Amino acid sequence: MEASFQITLQMVFTVLAGISAQVMAAYLKLPSIVLLLLLGILLGADGIGLLHPHLLGTGLEVIVSLATAIILFEGGLKLDVRELGRVSVSLQLLVTLGTLITLLGGSIAAHWLGEFPWNIAFLFASIVVVTGPTVVGPLLKQINVDRQVATLLEGEGVLIDPVGAILAYVVLDTILNGDADPLKAIMGLILRLGVGAMIGAVGGYLMSWVFKRASFLSFELKNLVVLAALWGLFSLAQMIRTESGVMTTVVAGAVFANSSVPEERLLRSFKNQLTILSVSVLFILLAADLSIASVLALGWGSLFTVLVLMFVVRPINILLCTWNSDLNWRQKLFLSWVAPRGIVSASVASLFGISLTQRGVNGGDAIKALVFLTIIMTVVCQGLTAGWIARWLEITSKDATGAVIVGCNPLSLLIARFFQERGEGVVMIDTDSEYFAQAEAQNLRVIANSALDAEVLEEAGIASMGTFLAMTNNGEVNFVLAQRASEEFSPPRVLAVFPRDPQAPNSANVKVNQAFVSDLAVKTWNEYLSNGRVKLGTTTLNEAEFSSQQEHIQEKIRSGVLVPLLLEREEHLQVMSVNQDWEVGDRIIYLLYDSRPNLLKLLSGASQSTALALEKLPEVEEVPIAKLSQLSATEVSGN
After folding, report:
1. Where are the transmembrane segments (predicted)?
2. Would you say residue 637 has pLDDT above 50?
3. Residues 6 or more apart in contact with residue 384 via CB below 8 angstroms
C-alpha cells in the first residue's frame, strides 16, 4: 500500500472516529472529550491498532499547531469584555497568581509523590496549569451553571491557555539549553506574551475592518478570509518569536468579537464547526498515540500527584484568587471542583515528549503519560459529576433569582413587590417616567432608558437575574425585547406579554414564553388597578379538589375576569406563563376583576388609596356545587 494512501486512510479513520464520538456524546449527554479519549485509545496501537499517528511524521505537529490556532481563536471569540468586567479581578488573579500556585503545587507534588526530577516536575506542572476551554465550554452549556461562574471558568480557560503554553515552552527551553537563569526565563515569557498580544490586537482589528467594509465579498468568502488571516497571523508570530502564536490567536479572536462586527454570529457558527472538527481530530490522534503501558508504569505516586492537583492545589488556587470577590461559598466550591485539562495540555505534552526524546533527555514518554493521566482523571471525574454537583449546590441558571422587568406600570410594580418581599433583586426599565415615583417609593431600582440597548440590560444585571419580563403596553415590542434578551443573554426564564401570533422573525426558535394569559390587555388591567377595580387573591391547589380547582380557575380566565400572575412552587416564585403546567401544592397569586360599583365598595370599607392585600377570595375558593356535581359525574362515567 502506498504511503500517501496510508496517510489518507489514517485521516479518514480519524475524522470518522472523532465525529462518531461527538454524535454519541450528544446522544448520551456526556462530555465529548470522554468518548474521544476512550475511542482514540481503543483505535490506537494499544487497542485494535487501526490508527498509527506516527505515520503522519512531522505532519502531526503541523496538524496540532493549525488546529490549536483555530481552537484558541474560537475561544477568543467568546470573550465578552462586558461580562469579564464583573469578574475581572478574580480572573486576573486566576491567570497570574493561579498559574503560579498550580506551577509550584504541581511541581512539588510531581517531585515528592511522583518521584520525578525537579526539571521534569516543573515541566509537567507548567503543562497542566491550563484548563481546557474545549472541555469547559460544552460542559457548562450542558449543565447551565449560573452566568457569573460560567464567565469566570470560560475566561480562565481561554486566557490561561496561551499563558500556560508559553510558560511550558520557556521551561522546556530552559531544560534543553541548560539555562536556569530565572530572570531570563521570566523575560522570555513576557516577551512572547507581548509579541503575541500586539500582533493579535492589530490582526484582529484589521480582520474586523475587512469584515465590515468588504461588501463585495460573500459571507462564505469572508469566513475563509478570516481563517486564512488567522493562520497567517499565527505563522507571523511564530516566526518573530517562537510560541507567541498561541497568544496571537486568543487576542485576535477577542478583539474581533468586541468590534461590533455585523453577522458575527454566523462567523462564530462557522468557527465553532471548525473547532469541533479540530478537537475531534486532535484528541483521537493524540489518544491513539498514547502508550497505556507508560501510564500504568507511572505507579501510585503519579496517581496521588493528580489527586493533589485536584483536591489540594485547585481549592487553594480558588480560595486565594476569589478571596475578595462577591462569589458565595457554593460558587467557590464548584470552581474548586471544575478544572478539566484539555486539548492544549495534550498537544503540548505530545510535542514536548517528542522534543525531549529527540534531544536525549529522559522523561519524554513519562511526562506525556502523566499529563494524559491528568486529563483522563479530571475530564472523567469532573465532567461526569459537574452537573450533579451544580444541582446539589443550587448554582444552575434555573436557580437564579431576581427579575428584570421592562415596563414600569401598576401591574409590573405589583409583580415587582412580590419579588422584592422575598429578598430578590428587581430592576425596572422604562422610558416613560409616569410611575417612576411609585417605583422609588417601593425602593425599586429604575433605569430610565430603552431596553433595546444591550448596555442598558447589562447595567440592569440581566446576566445574574433569573427572570426577564417584558410587559409594556405594546405587545409586538415586548416580544422583540424578550427575543433579543434571550439571544444575547439567555436568562433562565424569558417572558413577555404579546399577541397570540407575534409577527417576529424566527419566533419558533427563541425561548420566549407568553406571560400570564393569551392576549392580555395590559393597558386595561393597569386602569383596573389604578381605579381599584381588582382584588388580589391567592389559592393553593390541593389533591382532593385539584381537577375542580383547575377547571374553575380556567373558566374565570376564559371569561376575562381573572389573570394569574405568579406561581409559587417549592418556595420558588416565578411569573406565570400561558402554558404553565399546574401541580398539586402550587400556590397561585392572581388578580380578580371586581365588578362592584365604586360607591358600593366605599360603603363596604374599601379604599382606592389602600394597597392591595393578598387574601383568599370566596369567588375562587368556593367552587359552585353544580360544577362539582358535573365533574363528579364526568369522573364516574369515565370509570
Report:
1. 62-81, 93-114, 120-140, 152-172, 184-211, 223-240, 246-262, 274-297, 303-321, 333-354, 366-390
2. no
3. 30, 31, 34
